[in-house]
Specification:
Elements (H helix, E strand, L loop, with lengths): L14 H4 L12 E2 L26 H10 L14 H7 L8 E3 L16 E5 L3 E5 L5 E8 L3 E8 L8 E4 L1 H4 L14 E4 L15 E3 L12 E2 L51 H37 L9 H18 L17 H6 L32 H4 L3 H15 L13 H14 L20
Antiparallel strand pairs: 1-8, 2-3, 2-10, 3-4, 4-5, 5-6, 6-7, 8-9
Helix pairs in contact: 5-6, 6-9
């Protein structure tokens, strides 16, 4: 069924109006966003957020300090500039490489179906590289500022320096599709022969709930997916009939060399499994970030109200509790993969990402990990996001964490049931609970108690 136009997944800007402004459309079809109205506009420039003025403490800021202190030297090469060295020092694997060829990035004039943009990612970091581009583009999770955006000149320099960007990047990296906070989206478009999106055909915002048939338009995709179809690897020759594109032509490709020259890239892959993990990850980061900001603002508002009414500083208004609960709920839903699209055939990647990713995470006493992938009927073997281990999650205000943990406990122990959680079997709930008990630091004490109620299937 076609999505409605007022749904952010299928906004349809007029192509005639947008073509002259293409160089200014930053990252919205790839790891980016369309600069539409923000979801529940958040005042980032004011206390308690102070996004523009606050000091960054993220991994890039820490790397810059080490460079300045002479502890780290970024290595440069003629073909990739600082790319390899930056990936190494930010602990980002080349197996995560995904390639996007739609003309939808800051360095748009260098991007085409013949010269796609490469995106690499780790749990908290994203790096973009463009052939002959003058800059590396980096974004990274910050425990207090949610996401920071940087560039690094590709010109060899004895003292390379990451430049943090705020207002310029927020023009595109903050919208209703990033849930109103600095963040990202993975966007699917119908690309013309030149890579320019055919906006009149519609676009899709991708996450783990999206049908595969709507994903990856404007991206290259390597890997097997059986009879399932997607929009990757395709160019649209007839703009008036873009939705009638033959998706069989882009299906189950293990080799992209017939579509463009892959030799300039660090790998020849744009791994389907990496794309699926990327989609989940950016949306999880956005939800964690929004919960962080909303809770801090709610608590700041309450402090101001307590002072104005001469109430004790510890006074807690019911409205504040409601705001905290509202911020926590979307985090729990995404952590537990609510509304995930069921796979109808196995997914097999090509780059080695699947095994490398699975080897990252902590394991419980039975050897199980939230990083283990399923890829037969769903993305993960144990449907609870690995980003529960992230610094972003651990930096959530304590009241939000308390609500997230309480709701997780209620769902995993069967105290809370309902349609939202019917996808979790009794075995799923028990396994997730046991894995978290063994591997997640900072759990509330009641998580260690004996479970008196056997988890149900939500029926």
């Amino acid at each position: 069924m076609e999505r409605q136009q007022d749904d952010p997944r299928s906004s349809k800007p007029t192509v005639g109006k947008l073509r002259p402004y293409l160089p200014r459309l930053l990252l919205w079809a790839s790891v980016g966003l369309w600069a539409g109205p923000a979801e529940g506009q958040i005042a980032l420039e004011k206390p308690p957020i102070n996004y523009l003025k606050a000091t960054a403490t993220d991994a890039v800021a820490q790397l810059q300090k080490r460079i300045d202190a002479g502890e780290v030297e970024l290595k440069h090469d003629a073909q990739h500039g600082y790319l390899k060295s930056v990936l190494e020092h930010l602990d980002v694997s080349t197996t995560s490489q995904t390639l996007v060829f739609s003309k939808t990035s800051f360095q748009v004039r260098h991007i085409s179906p013949q010269t796609p943009r490469a995106v690499y990612f780790g749990d908290d970091t994203y790096v973009g590289w463009v052939q002959d581009g003058s800059l590396l583009e980096i974004s990274v999770v910050d425990p207090n500022l949610v996401t920071n955006f940087y560039s690094l000149s590709q010109k060899k320099n004895d003292a390379p320096r990451f430049t943090r960007h705020t207002q310029q990047c927020l023009q595109c990296h903050r919208s209703r599709m990033t849930r109103g906070v600095p963040g990202h989206v993975v966007r699917s478009v119908y690309p013309g022969l030149d890579g320019i999106p055919i906006y009149s055909a519609g676009t899709y915002l991708s996450d783990h709930s999206s049908p595969l048939k709507e994903r990856w338009g404007g991206w290259y995709v390597t890997g097997e997916h059986g009879g399932q179809r997607h929009l990757g690897n395709l160019l649209v020759g007839d703009p008036d009939n873009a939705r009638r594109v033959d998706t069989d032509r882009g299906a189950n490709l293990d080799d992209l060399s017939s579509l463009f020259d892959t030799t300039p890239y660090l790998t020849p892959h744009s791994d389907i499994v990496a794309l699926m993990v990327l989609e989940h990850q950016v949306n999880m980061h956005n939800r964690i970030g929004r919960a962080n900001f909303l809770a801090r603002i709610a608590l700041s508002d309450e402090q101001a109200m307590n002072r104005a009414l001469d109430r004790p500083a510890s006074s807690r208004a019911e409205s504040t509790s409601q705001r905290i609960n509202s911020a926590a709920k979307p985090v729990v839903e995404h952590l537990l993969f609510c509304q995930e699209t069921e796979l109808t055939a196995p997914i097999v990647g090509t780059s080695g990402f699947t095994q490398e990713f699975a080897d990252r995470g902590p394991r419980d006493r039975r050897g199980r990990s939230l990083y283990e992938l399923d890829l037969k009927r769903r993305l993960f073997k144990y449907p609870c996001s690995y980003l529960i281990y992230s610094e972003g999650f651990d930096s959530l205000p304590q009241l939000v964490q308390d609500q997230v943990y309480q709701k997780l406990w209620n769902v995993l122990t069967g105290l809370e049931t309902g349609d939202d959680y019917n996808h979790l079997s009794s075995a799923d709930r028990t396994a997730i609970l046991e894995i978290l008990r063994d591997t997640k630091r900072g759990l509330p004490d009641y998580w260690r108690s004996t479970i008196n109620q056997t988890p149900t299937d939500g029926e």
